[in-house]
Specification:
- It is a single chain.
- By secondary structure, this protein is mainly alpha-helical.
- It has one domain.
- Helices cover 79% and strands 0% of the residues.
- It is built from 13 helices and no strands.
- The relative contact order is 0.16.
Length: 301
């Protein structure tokens, strides 16, 4: 009995830490929580869980109790609760901690995240069985589109309309769910990043409720589409996700031109050396993170 309890606690901590990892990066422009979910091996499980929660609630409202129960019975509630608590905890801690770290060590932190992304690309890529010409063509197009979108310049919106706050929540959650597209970066591009970060820091209840309404709307729209696409065109979706991850990783390079936001080399060679060291550390850390689920599984079996 004690052995079962200890295994259950280990699994709960594992899910919480995975959620914390996802939430931590969701406040950083340039890196997606979806990427971390993919890296930690819980991306499809998370998509399926959100889908079943959504349609469980919708069927309950429509008084289709059997269908509602069918969706709810498919859920791993321990996974959902612990993952959600981890994400929420990280979002509130990360709003202060990550912004402080980015102010003090921006180049080092961005290089580390670049290494994390590069190290995690191998996960979806190895799941693509046949590397044909069409695979490489789709990959090239998705890399180019991702890079172009993330190179768009932005300005800050200090007094957004109420509908704009809802729209910002909708856009950001769609980006957070898709690996390679950062929800924080989308907020930055539409000028809503700083005001949203301040709302989390200061507990602006009205803003957060409106933003959450947008988040829920985005999830209702996107999750069923993603679930259907994964079922019908899994390999093609994985190719696009790899392209998005590669395209967004370019944006994490610490030094860019002031005119078109393109990557460039730093003026001093020692800065380049420091970045390379942190990129390598990120790749190593990414490899270790991929092994954690297997270690946890062996402890809980």
């Amino acid at each position: 009995m004690n052995n079962k309890k200890s295994k259950s606690i280990i699994r709960s901590i594992d899910f919480f830490l995975r959620g914390f990892a996802i939430g931590s990066v969701d406040v950083i422009p340039g890196i997606s929580g979806g990427t971390i979910a993919l890296m930690l091996g819980i991306y499809e499980k998370t998509i399926n869980s959100i889908f079943n929660i959504e349609f469980g609630i919708i069927n309950f409202i429509l008084q289709k109790r059997e269908k509602s129960l069918d969706h709810f019975n498919k859920l791993d509630w321990k996974f959902i609760i612990c993952l959600t608590l981890g994400i929420i905890t990280a979002l509130f801690i990360g709003a202060n901690l990550i912004s402080t770290l980015l102010e003090k060590w921006p180049n080092e932190l961005m290089s580390l995240f670049l290494g994390l992304i590069l190290g995690s690309i191998v996960i979806p890529w190895t799941q693509i069985k046949k590397k044909t010409f069409s695979v490489h063509a789709i990959l090239s197009i998705s890399i180019a589109l991702s890079f172009l979108i993330l190179s768009i310049s932005f300005s800050t919106n200090t007094d957004p309309h109420l509908l704009m706050i809802i729209f910002a929540g909708l856009l950001s959650v769609c980006a957070m769910i898709l690996p390679g597209i950062s929800g924080a970066l989308i907020l930055l591009m539409i000028g809503m990043y700083e005001i949203t970060l301040n709302a989390v820091k200061n507990g602006n209840f009205i803003y957060l409720v409106l933003f959450f309404l947008g988040v829920c709307s985005g999830m209702v729209i996107l999750i069923p589409i993603l679930k259907w696409l994964f079922k019908k065109y899994r390999e093609k979706i994985l190719i696009i996700l790899v392209g998005l991850m590669i395209g967004s990783s370019i944006n994490l390079w610490p030094w860019k031109t002031s005119t078109n936001n393109f990557p460039k080399l730093p003026d001093e060679i020692h800065l380049l050396f420091i970045s390379i060291v942190f990129i390598i550390l990120g790749i190593i850390f990414s490899t270790l993170l991929r092994k954690i689920p297997h270690i946890i599984k062996s402890l809980t079996e």
